[in-house]
Amino acid sequence: MPVLVTIAVALAAVLAAVVIGRAVWLWWKYRGARVITCPENQRPAGITVDAGHVAAHAFSQTPQLRLSACSRWPERAGCGQQCLSQVEAAPEDCLVRNILVHWYAGKRCVSCGQPFGDISLAGAKPAVLPADKVSVEWSQIPADKLEETLAASSPICFACHMGNTLVRTHPELAVDRHRSADLSGR
Asked: What is the pTM of this model?
């Protein structure tokens, strides 16, 4: 009898691990901000899929997607969420972080000229430098404005972004070596 109990417990543990593993995998796959083309107006919109809902229904025939946020809400909150077909078709392609990583690929920092290489999503992230020369972090760019922002911006590395931010926000703490050299030459 104890052998049957041990086997039953082992099978239950394996089944629980499979269920939890699939739920975690689906949550990981569908988390994060995304950019889609709104079917209603054919313009970019920023959305977030309810990854918790997808994970909770991990053993449905197909993932049960629904939005938890949209840049067109609250005005269009009652929409049919047809945009989710774009997420179903290519979940990785519309993910903001993937769009950004692809945008930096093969580029160099506009300020120091260093190549970007692999971008770690956990560490210091590069920024973008729009025409106004005020560098911005990824999180400051609304998803529905991502494409137009990237089209009009240059890539800037994390170190140059931080330097740019320091000079802009605390000029009294920054030393402009070019200006100092000009003044000392007089």
From this structure: 0.76
